[in-house]
Records
---
Amino acid sequence: MAEFDITINGTLHRVEAEPDLPLLWLIREGLALTGTKYGCGIGQCGACLILVDNQPTPACLLSVQNARGRSITTIEGLTSRTAQAVQRAWIAHQVPQCGYCQSGQVVAATALLERTPAPSEEAITQAMSPVLCRCGTYPRIKKALNELAMSGPFKADDHDQDTD
Amino acid sequence: MIKTPINRRQFLKVAGATAATGFALGVVSSTAGCSRKPAANSTETNWLAWFEMSARGKVVLHCPRVELGQGIHTGLAMVFAEELDLDMSNIEVAPARLDSAFGSQLTQDSDGIRSNWALVRQLAALARQQLRTAAAAHWQVDVSQCATDRGSVVHAPTQRQLNYEALLAPAARLPLPDSVPLKTPDQFTLVGKPYPRLDIPPKVNGAQRYNGDIQVPGMLYAAIVHCPWVGGKVASVNEQSVEAAPGLKQLVALENAVALVADTYWAAEKARRALEVTWARPDTPVLDSEQQYQYLDEQCSAPGPVAFERQQSSGLSANAGERPFSARFRFPYQAHAPMETMNCIADVRAHRCEVWAPTQAPWYVYRLALNHGLSSLFRFMERVHLKLTRETSDRIKVHVPMAGGGFGRRLYLDYVQQAIEVSKAVKAPVKLMWSREDEIRNGFYQPASAHRIEAALNTEGRLTRWYHRIAGPGDHTHGADFFYDCDDAQVEVSSHTMGMRIGAWRSVSDATNTQARELFINRMCEQNSLDPFAFRLSMLSGSPRLGAVLEKARALVEPAEGVRVGVAVHQMRASYIAQVVEVSHHSSVPEILRVICVIDCGIAVNPDSIRAQMEGGIVFGLSALLHDGITIKDGRIEQSNFHDYPLLRYRAMPTVQTHIMPSAEAPGGVGELAVPCIAPALIHALGEGVLPRDILA
């Protein structure tokens, strides 16, 4: 066990944990941020996607030790205008079915649009393929993202929290 | 409006009312964490077991089907609001308590809407009728002058109105009428139009809670290691191998698995990796996949029990020019692989048991708690209570949170029994969580099957003989019926135990029987230069609704150079479907242009939910083509996670266009409908020499 300073959703947490603890379990159990889900444990399904310095990353593969000094954002911390637009579009297009993968989907989609406000179909495909959906919501994700890609206003994005 | 007679016995059974008192102001027991007892002088009135009306103007509909994201709560709320004449914004849906009046309360078989459509309509219409009658009595006018308007009864001539809550008490005391008016489809204002699903908003921002997100005071965590040999058991556990495991509290040996209980999941999981268990292999190991297939192939060479036959003569007898065709097919076991693995929270004390489980079968959870949780004295008391009152008591509380996908897997509650046994052993609440490897390797799989089809065409290209043998573990009769015209058709289905755990997988044997049948027909057409649409259409006199969807699908195809079209049709659970896949062969890598999906599912209650089920079913069916299924070698399941049991990804998703045929027929099932046809349609559109997995990866 050792102490680690981890910044999650803009808040610094000092945690006591084993160095190899996957951040997924710190987030879900240690910090009770349950929006990030366990799906496979080997980084194949995307249910545990978080943003690490704005990059979508599987939380199951990132150890607490390696999360030090990084800026971690979970689904709960997605409050930017881009994130809100994604979530509005998800509702407008009735995207989720069971919903279990959707935190990962929304994280991936938000990161994509913040990085590339008007992404090509290929860029969308690349960004979204890491997140599996057993219910098959892909067609609606595609419609939602195609619409968002054409929307434009997220080009100048201000976050409601400090990005660092 | 049409008048529908009330089935008094059915209503009285559900209502707990008597003929004399009509709807009693009922008291609903608060078991199952669902509907609760209203206070003695509360203004809330329980109308039957199905709904409550509160003074705030809200109606709570108790739904005896689990919302899994398929939209059943929203769909039944729409049906209810339609006949009761309520605004959807005034309806909430809650899970129904465990009550035998609801039937099995299983969420399966695409039956959520189709099984409850008539009863929910009648209940709502009855309530509306009683409210109107009560208002008429109060105003001393004729009930025919009393209409309803979204939650109020109105008397147009005098412009008086009363809202439903004000009329509840007098309405509840009225005797049941002999019949109630139901709307005709042309009068629907809600049903038939897309409505945004009630369960969606919390699913877009991480707010939706699943079972693994629930914390219970004093809760411990359990990981589990299952015997890697199918049918094997625990022989001995080397406790010393985890002596030094930090946070580990206790080991609990179950019949074929060992649970590790710790104060965090990761501590349990790390201990699991270190734990040494000696397993006892089964006396008769499960056969390797290839051996299973060979055995099942042999069974297809011998006659089996006849599941379907039609012997008639229409003059289209086999003649000298008859061309026979035959083919064999093999289909593997398939895992469900919902995104949320199996998990369960159990808090077992001698005198009471509380279980939180994502499930499609809440009654099974209750029974497991009854039989494996409660001590024998309290089990006896609960059984007596159940028998006398026909209700469950607070001794056993079952919570059913939103599940991350079911597809049939959550009908089999091994994970619930495990959690109950572990909690009982450690005398504390335990959250048992399965890894993905646990889920892939300990499934209740879609059963494998072997098929042999022999058929014959006469010189006019008409089918004169169809002989289909199916062999596999479990029940392969679903979808085995041969619905095409054919004088001499016979389907034989034999069941053979192979020692594997099997269960209902989305669309069950409709998937494999349809794939064999439709692939065979497509090949037969191709070899004889017959148009697969025309050929089928000429043989659907026995199923005009299926013929109609196929006609529509054909009309939607735009023939193009270099584009191969594959078609397949099926009918199941009172619905009809035709799927067409268009594949472009212009470049060296074939490309799916689109999937056309035409369905007749009767009245489409929430068309958008239906479209979502078509899209989802297609993805589910396509995923099965990415690999060889669940395979067995040396008595062990070979697959373990998504690297060797892949699911379809976003990048491989084709464009899907769904067309829902207008219909006034009763709603049919749609949850499984889109799975069976996609494989045979795609395989035919790809043509020889192209494997689906080559273009779907």
---
Amino acid sequence: MRVIVHGRARGRVLRSAEPINFLGAVDKQTGIVGNEGHPLYQMQVGKRVLVFPHGVGSSVGAYTVYSLAANGVAPAAMICKRADLTVATGCALANIPLVLAGDAEFASLRDGMDVAVDTKKADMIRQL
Amino acid sequence: MELTRWEEDALAGRHGEVQEMAYRILVATGEATDARGLAPVQWAHLSGVNYNTIGDAGERFLRELSAKDEARVKVMTTLNPMGYDADSVDDFGLDDGFIAKQRAIAESYERMGVIPSFSCIPYDIFDIPERGTRVAFAESNAAIHANSVDGLHTNKESALSALASALTGKSPYSDEPGGPDVTIRMRIDEPDDLDCGLLGFFAGSIADASVCISGMPHMDRRSCKSLCGGMGTSGTCSRFETGEGAGGSERVDFGREELEEMRCQISSADTGDIITLGSPQLGLDEMEQLASMVRGRRFSKRCMVFCPRSVRDRAVSLGHAGVIEAAGCRIMSDCCTCLTPLVCPEDVDAVTTNSVKGGYYLKNATKVGVNLKSLPDIVRDETQ
């Protein structure tokens, strides 16, 4: 487990097996994934604990992550396998907790699961 | 990542809220890149300029930030293209609201001391510092060019990490990577600019950080920039080198099959209603080259050529601009193909372009068809 952005949050897991291109795929105003090909198509990321391998796409996607928070539709927290600068810095500016999980931990976070994230605790991700 | 006492204090807010925000972003960047610490940078290049991409929240963020006296860049800072050409903004029927918001973004950056270069090719229009200099470039084609061609060191920065670097004068640094992740054996003979762009797109899709390309003939500037543009679009790879590659590295071929596979991911149309050349923007060499290719010929469709304002001014005085315009092209400054509101699905079904990066965004963001062709083929097919 590695902390990229500290913080505490609770929410239901929204899990994607595919990376997420925030600039391309997520509507800044609604938090809805608009990319037809994406597994999260038409899902709303707001208030969810977003679990996905990593971010991809343009460097400007950092502003999209920030915009989601400014518009009140950002995930409560993000959990990734790998850090990318777009997601990391967007979360840093918006104060969205971002944690990197190992393979086993990542696999154990199933869609719909209620979790609490607290980066200051030894047990950072706890199923409720 | 190790911070100095001053940096810890800044992170804790003891040097003001702007530094606190900037160091918070740098620390996240450092954690994400396994950085050892922070090192000074000589130059920052920012993305996140086009109102189409950063939107209202981004515009407001920059406005509120730039209103603070402490929000001033500490190093030379340059800027990516914005949404339109300031000289011809009235010609394109843009929404007044868009124009106002875009102006506000430009003003916020200028208030912070950023040079309003509005160009994605800072390496072509500013003096390159000496090899080994650390910089913080957020435009992916520029970061790759800096690392691979100019001998500089930069992370493939995000819009916000580059901004944080501009405001602090620092960027996280990691240990030098061991070597390229993978070696690509270039199997295409005499690759043109489009082949190089697709090679870059392929490389970006398979290499995490660094790639070696073997069997690569010397590339002219247009092809090299095309490769950088393609590579930045598809992944996290931030550097390429040409050569034989290290003994142990994985080897992958790039031949006709791979080329076609990449082409099909972007190219969807047999023809285009308009033509765009740019992405990356054309530098002076390429304007001269384009002029010599189109001299005495004329495009039958609308053709937009994107280059930085400083290049356009030089091209005008050297006569290249006149030749290009006589061929029916419209030269556009301050903006580029990617994410420009100047190309929209209401007016255009498909765009002909030689740009892999431009094509990718035209397809996935603007949502128009894309007809990918090399520049020589575009001139051959679209001019008389």
---
Amino acid sequence: MRALNQLAALLFLLLGAFMVQRAFVYKVFIEQIGTGPGFMPMLTGIGILILAVLLFLESRIEPRGLRPGFLPDGAGWRRIGGVVAALAAAIAGMNVLGFRVAIFLFVVVVMSLVGTHRLLVRLAVGLCVSVAVHWAFVNKLTVPLPAGMLGF
Amino acid sequence: MESFAFLLQGLGSALQPENLLFALLGSVLGTLVGVLPGVGPAAGTALLIPMTFVLPAVPAIIMLSAVYYGAMYGGTITSVLLNVPGEAASVVTCIEGHEMAKRGRAGPALAIAALGSFFGGMVATVCLVTVALPLTRAALRFGPPEFFALMCFGLSLVIGLAGKSLVKSLLVALLGLALSQVGMDPTIGLPRFTFGAPDLVGGMELVAMVMGLFGVGDLLVNLERPARSATQSKVGRLFPGRQDWRRSLPSIFRGTVIGTGLGLIPGVASAVPTFVSYVIEKRVAPEPPEHWGGGAIEGVAGPETANNAYVNAALIPLFSLGIPSSPTVALLMGAFMINGLIPGPFLFTEHPDVVWTVIASLFIGNVILVILNLPLVGLWVRVLSIPRGILFALILVFCIVGSYSLNNRLFDPVIMLLFGVVGYALRKLEFPLAPVALTLVLGPLMEKGLAQSMMLSRGDPSIFLTRPIALALLVLSVVVLVVSSLKTGVSDAVRQDSEV
């Protein structure tokens, strides 16, 4: 955990520094008004910088290495990575393939990654979910969903 | 008396068929959220907010409020029957409730939990009615410095009790504050942190970020391990016997006091009243020590009552002062703001019809929940037999389409996904998420309060020192953070995000 917390501290340090730098660009004080657009970013950035240093120092007393079971096993990483990739692909594909096709494929992939269902079950559930959700949102909640190049 | 007159008017409006329907729908969905492990009240509320865009303000908020307190009822069912807490506040119920179920007494456990929750919820709502107007009148005397200081105080309580590390809690609070600054600044309308992207000029959507942090992030954590099947106990005879009532009634009264009292304090996680109640019951109830851990009905009655009393009482700081006390209440506040209403003292003066209708609906919602939960227990448990693959796919589909529907653009699902990964990473590194949710909602209001205060004082920060209420609140904020940093022995079990 020590290394991970130190990495987190470094990332927060970079964020804090970035915010302070931008604060000066946005102007911290404006003479006629008082606090400018950069005032809150300045305060926030300085706060993050200080706390990032404290986090780094706090992490130095932590034991090295990770406790057993902290990270998922190979199958766990495959599930997590697969679902994230499937989400990204579904979002990217919605405008091209259309909502119904993208979500149908998404559901089939997620069920393949997470469960142990037969192909026919996955296809059937994917079809039902994509059609039902599309109907509910477009027809009942009047939310226009992407049609894609295929037109549906 | 004035409050009760307003309440009667609100009740008339809450009993309209449309509002009743959405109270019922919210109660059903809330119970479902409570039953399903992997979807906490915060994620459930975030998923449902986009669906309320087509609704008028009052039914939308009635429905989302019902989801909030309904989730607490739902969590009890799986705790008792499956030893699986649907949400963190139901963990305590697993200890005694599941033991009762193993002895064939699941029915009395569920019945006492439901009836105790009903009583606690109703009493807390009566407190809300009684206390809201006087508190609001006091808060109307607040100016921008007092509101800013009040928000700091509310945040300090959440941060102080949020996680094991105060530094991590403060860091994520500031992270939320930083994220809330993306978009147009409230002073002169200058775009900040937009990197030239038109999609960022209006800021990042709160609901998309919360869906990612709480919904997707939690789901990714659940994916680490393969699914485990839980052994279900039978419900059996539903109603408690005379001895069950004799032992439970004092616990229900105590739980009501504990839950209502703690609900008034912003920052107290929903698991805290349940643990406090359990500890007190063990000390006060006349049963011998060996009775505990073997199905003590007091250990169900007290905590479940405290839980629901807490949930209803936690709406008091929101309605009267505009201070959300937990991530889910922060989202409710977001829902108010999406509908053009700002929770706080001005809500009572500018929109009394809305606020009293919502408060009246809390009574109705509690009645609906006790009717829903007792006879339909078997149905709720069947929900858990939905395979994990289908359930997770459904939740993610709702995340995608819910975030898309916010502005009909793909940018928001991208934000949702990004924050899902961030939420997963924060969870793994033991950063609490409650402070992020609160600063995402309160950040713009805090900045506005600070800017207005500085304008009032022409840039002189001593305005916060010369106004006694603002000074007192800021000093209290510092005291809370200092005391919290001393780690006064609050159990790690309650220093957690109870609503995720």
---
Amino acid sequence: MRLNRQGQARKDTAVTALFLPFALLLGLDLCGFGAVTAAAGGGIADGLIFGGAVWFLSASSLLALRASGVRELKIVMIVICLVSIGLLVQYRMDRDLAQTQLIWLVGAVILSSGFSLLLRDHRALARFKYLFGTLGIFLLVIPAIIGVEHGGAKLWLQIGPYTVQPSEIAKIMLAIFFAAYLSDRQRQLSEGRDSAFRLPRLADVGPLLMMWALSLVVLVVERDLGSSLLFFGLFVTLMFAATRRPLYPVVGGLMFTSGAAVSYFLFSHLRVRVDVWLDPWSDFFGRGYQIGQSLLAMASGGISGRGLGYGSPSLIPAAATDFPFAVIGEELGIIGTGLLLLLYLMLVARGFYVALNTSDLFGKLLAAGLSSALALQVLVIIGGVTKAIPMTGVTLPFVSYGGSSLVANMILITLLARIGDPQVSKP
Amino acid sequence: MKGSSSLNKGIRGLARGFLLLFLALLAYVGYLQTIGSGAIATREENARGALEESQAPRGKIFAAGGEVLAESIPSGTNRSGRQLYGRIYPEGSSTSHIVGYISKKYGRTGIESAANTTLSGIGGGRFFDRLLRAATGTRERGRDIHLTLDLDLQRAAKEALAGRKGAIVIVDPASGALLAAYSNPSYDPSGIDSRFPALSKQNDSPLLNRATQGLYPPGSTMKVITAAAALESGTSRISEHFDGPSALVVQGNKVTNYRDQTCGNFDLLTAFAKSCNTIFAKLGLKVGAKEMSDTAKDFGFGRRPPVEIPASASRYPDPSKMADVDLAWSAVGQADVLATPLQMALVAASVANSGVVPAAHIVQEDIDITRMRGRRAVSETVAGDLQIMMEAVVESGTGKAAARRDLTIAGKTGTAEVAKGGSHAWFIGYAPAQNPTAAIAVLVEHGGTGGSVAAPLAARLLDKAAAAKR
């Protein structure tokens, strides 16, 4: 997957060539389902039936999205691989959960195809930038006010029998807003800057400070590093892409870490998170249990894992929603986790490829923003699960159990896959 | 478009940045699951053998005489019809500190942990082997472990300590095999899942293995090491005479004898037998901190004994930071000197073993020749002198309560002063003196004097050990 240096669109004839590995990967997945049921000691039949259903639905999703106008099919294929790995892991943990997730998948594909059909031209979204901006910030902040707490963080809303995570949708809206806003100001922002560090003007510092403050509010009130990091990160990455000023990632990074550090010292509930992150073992049977078990699981997996169905995911609290990565690590080893990371990398890379090969500014920025949001989320959750950074409440896209997350992320990649030269994207 | 191509550069920069981050994360996760995995996966909190245990029969743990200390018995079936197993511990609290437990929630301890790979028979990372086995339906089997533990002695040790906090360790002086290691209070490992929270909060720490991990001031049992240091370095002779006042003033502090008695002018042998503090304090000052520290290290201080279950390293203070008064008190086993009952049993064992500290072990299957070699602490000649001194303790000194008519016991009593509560009662020794088959350390927390409390217990157990060997 090479990024074309000239930024020119490449005619994509290799899609058919990808079908074979795609089919192979799904075939392996099927074997996985069979193996899981074999490990549990039951008959292989149920596993194969479920695996068959997954395979069938995957093929249908691909066709449905193509029919709705999506031409960037590599993205869809990678996502389907991720979803089926997610379903496999969910199935291994709890068959009923996997079934529910499968139904959510159907819903997500239907919604995404509908969205794709309605969206003739992605540039139409730019007209509603302020609506999306306000709605995005609103959705980001609303759990702080009327949200429910879970695992020490307030990120969810209770709607009837469902808990949804509004930040998943918020990130799409904010990406649209930032992309639209920046593409309007593009010329002004990038004028006359060829040196790396100049004294920043108020126009630059202002929004940066504002976003920083807002993200810290999210951090403190919602007690979640993930959402605030995602939000601030999205802003910073797009500003960097638009202005090419290292100011944004460097100073922004410093500001965020120092702001987070100060908040951690000031607020005891955050300090607890950091303590557990730094040393989960001293309170292993208390607060450190979840992350401790995650580490034990991954270390026990080693290179090829303990085998599908032979690990102990029941030892990790909330494994299906928060720690599927650790379960993959335990049962499939670094081979499994490495493969998963590579799939995400391919997805993000493909997203940036779309960004480079779109000709309108808004499309470029939007594609870059959506890819960045996805990349940041994956990095943050995997970082948290492996204790590289403190644990957060964001989900692992497409793999974690969670209906709202699956729907939101499916819409995200559908939108991403529909960004392209306006002439080509019309069905 | 100009804006477009410069934006492209920005986007490309962004993409590269994320690529780097992903690769860094991949490297970190790779490390976590390969090179760095050992340190984490072997942590005791890791219960990932326990769940498999319930699906495959785990190996048994046997005492030396073939008695079962831990075994898996069928206990129902799971939803898919697979046989499940539960773990039972027939000897309960008699052997719990050694055998340990295996808990789905609380991890593993003791031999259940140390020999987990053998007992569970399941290694990591053999996915395809397992798939094959699952396909053909053959079951995983664990392998058994045999301990050097003499169950009769272990039970006798439990009886001896009944109702009192402390520990008893009995080792074979020649091989270092642990014949008994009992710690009181103890606990019953069955049902550990529900009892752990209460046990871990109990004031008297029943989960602590005092025999191998309890650190106490050794008191006068330290004099074996002090004497060894003096004799080995040539600083003194067994026949050298010393003046033993009731108190020795060192740097404004007083080292006193038991009940402030005056020792009189004793030779080293008598001073040892009568356990005269002031004389040994003088001896310690004469030997010097460095030599004392080196000798303590030769006997095993500062290192964890090689035994398979967790054992603490005993401590002798850093010689470069010791003032004379510390040195004087350390020579009689006070002042920051801390020893485990296992370590002191090994001290007695090395005297019995002509000066070679045997390699402590408790698992029979663990025959690694290089690991089993002992370390020489003192020369045979010095060991011979120490043997004479230790025999004198029981014959005519503070250890008379350990004397037996048809068994010659050699030993050393100890009464370790502590800041809070009564003194700890110690006795270390071995028997029969001529051809030792067992070395022992008895510690009774806040028990009183070594001579009156610990010595009789030790004698009873050494009697039993010798009878078994006849």
